[in-house]
Amino acid sequence: xxxxxxxxxxxxxxxxxxxxxxxxALESFRVKYLGKKGSLTSVLKSMGSLSPEERPIxxxxxxxxxxxxxxxxxxxxxxxxxxxxxxxxxxETIDVTMPGREVSLGKKHPLTTVxxxxxxxxxxxxxxxxxxxxVELDYYNFEALNLPPDHPARDTQDTFYINDNVLxxxxxxxxxxxxxxxxxxxxxxxxxxxxxxxxxxxxxxSPVFHQIEGLVVDKGITMxxxxxxxxxFARKLYGEDTRLRFRPHHxxxxxxxxxxxxSCFNCxxxxxxxxxxxxxxxxxxxxxxxxxxxxxxxxxxxEYSGFAFGIGLERVALFRYGIxxxxxxxxxxxxxxxxx
Length: 340
Ligand code: DAH
Fold this sequence. Notes:
Elements lengths: L1 H18 L3 H12 L4 H7 L8 H38 L18 H15 L3 E2 L5 E3 H4 L24 E3 L5 H9 L4 E10 L11 E11 L4 H16 L5 E8 L2 E10 L16 E10 L1 H6 L8 E8 H9 L12 H4 L3
Parallel strand pairs: 1-4
Antiparallel strand pairs: 2-3, 4-5, 5-9, 6-7, 7-8, 8-9
Helix pairs in contact: 1-4, 2-4, 5-10
The chain binds 3,4-dihydroxyphenylalanine.
């Protein structure tokens, strides 16, 4: 009777093992048959009821059954492990022929490229870079630059007022004042930055644009130094053949003042669509620093003199790349920006 039970257990166990598909199921199988309360164990426990002759025979058989089940169990365990290992390897396969994911590198905005070039040119001439705040006091933006409250030139530079005394700067010229308040001559700086005016957007205007201010103050600085500096700058930027034209102008913070044109780099001065038939292109304003401005900053105009200039970055970039609409710089259209 016990012998038959043993055979039944063995056959059933072997059959069940064949169907096991997971390590967890294998463990419950082991508990079910070989555990402390397992079916094979309980058969062994009931051997006490056998006669002394039968006991060793059944005992031996029981051990054989146990060994057979254990062997098959280990086999199953091994093949399961192998199966999972293979699945894992398959799922982790690297297809080295697969195309890589493209790393898209950003690039510099054309205005940044032009600004970097300008900085390089001036740093090469011994200038350092200064900065001032975008949100500026009326005093620095206008008053200290010899534009008192009712000065008519203020009308051309209307801006956004935070209150009566605080505004978005309309020009980078206030950096001249801030710098001269803090530094004694010799001074040789450029100050690039964002400026603001309440202009409507069109092809040549934007309420936000950029300027690069220049300031040199030292003993014996003359207009000849200004001309030489600007000529060097323009030739480096637009080519060795570039000629400069100084037209008298008025800026309250310089005396004398001038606007500077360069000979058209496209037609060489003959007149074309880039220069609108003029042969010349206006690129900046400049002049000799007004003695009043030096005095306001605590610099003695009898001892020192200086020149200053203000370049419009967008204009320089428009001409550099032959672009006819400034709005393109600010629209962030990648189809445009990717061309540079
Ligand atoms: N700040 C002037 C403007 O926005 C440009 C300028 C002209 C700057 C003459 C200067 C200068 O430093 O000397 O129109």
